[in-house]
Structure formats: structure tokens, C-alpha cells
Amino acid sequence: MDKLWAPWRVKYIRSKKQKGCVFCKASRKQAGDYVIFRTPHVIAMLNIFPYNNGHMLVSPVRHLSKLEQLTQEEVLGLFNAVKRAKKLLEKVLKPQGFNLGINLSRSAGAGITGHLHIHIVPRWVGDTNFMPSLAGTKIISQSLDELAKLLKNAQAKTA
């Protein structure tokens, strides 16, 4: 069996697991650790289980699971927030591309099914290397704390 040393995960392993919707909790906090920005209708935050460095989640503040439930104002706010988050990621990380996605239902790959959200995943040529291909392991080279600080600083400069 291959081993991957990740001592920082002990905090998560030992922590009491919270119940409830992560997006609703983040929406209610004054200053969430990985919340990059909020608007009246939308919250944008880093994914704590990222597919790639800079993986952000943008969701409506209102708890809903279907696109059809969004008001016109929420639709506009959601996609303006996606544009804003993408622009921040471009400024800070300078990726060569992006994957944008919405997984609607467990069968479509949604890990959180009750609260609609959009994934923004920065991509670089060669970011899929031998580790995920051969070992089924993805390496994220930057801490969430460091990245959150950089994104919040960039956000403050553009606000």
C-alpha cells in the first residue's frame, strides 16, 4: 500500500463533524475562512476538497436545488459572481484555462445535492500528471489558507 504523508488532515479527522448545509452556514457567517466574497444573493468560497488548486464554489445564498427555482435576480447575481471569481483566479493564479460545471443530482456527480452550486476549477497544461494517472493521487501544492489570503487581498484591491 502506498502512503501519502498529510499530517494537516488530523485536524479534520479529529474534529466533530457538523451537520447541515455548508453553503447555508457559510452564508450566515460574518467572515468565513474560505469565503472569498458575498453579494446579497450569492456566496463564493474555496472548495475544501479541491480537484485542483483554486477550485471555487459559487452558490446562491438561498437554499435551493434546482435551476428553475432561481429568480432572475439570482441568475444574474450567480453568473456575475462566477465571472468575478474567475477574474480573481486569473489574477492570482494565472491558469491557462478553466472547467466550469454544475452537477444536478447525485447521479450527475453532485456531492452536495440540496444546495445548487457552480464549480470553477482552474486548469494548467500538464496539471494531470503521473500521480493521478498511476497512483490515483492528486497533489495540491498550495494551502487553502495561503490561497484564501491571496484571493481576499486581490478582491480588496478590485473592490
Number of helices: 5
What's the CATH architecture name? 2-Layer Sandwich
Major beta sheet summary:
5 strands, antiparallel
Task: Going across the biggest sheet, name each strand in turn.
Answer: 1-2-3-5-4
Low-confidence stretches: 130-135
Rg over C-alpha atoms, rounded to the nearest angstrom? 16 Å
Structural class: alpha+beta
User: What number is the mean pLDDT?
Assistant: 83
Helix amount, in percent?
Answer: 25-40%
Can you walk me through this structure?
It is a single chain. Helix content is 35%, strand content 16%. Mean pLDDT is 83; it is low at 130-135. It has one domain (19-158): HIT family, subunit A (2-Layer Sandwich), CATH 3.30.428. The protein has five helices and five strands, in the order ααβββαββαα. It has 159 residues and is an alpha+beta fold. Helix 3 crosses helix 5.
Task: Write out key terms for the chains shown.
single chain, about 160 residues, HIT family, subunit A, five-stranded antiparallel beta sheet, 5 helices, 5 strands, about 35% helix
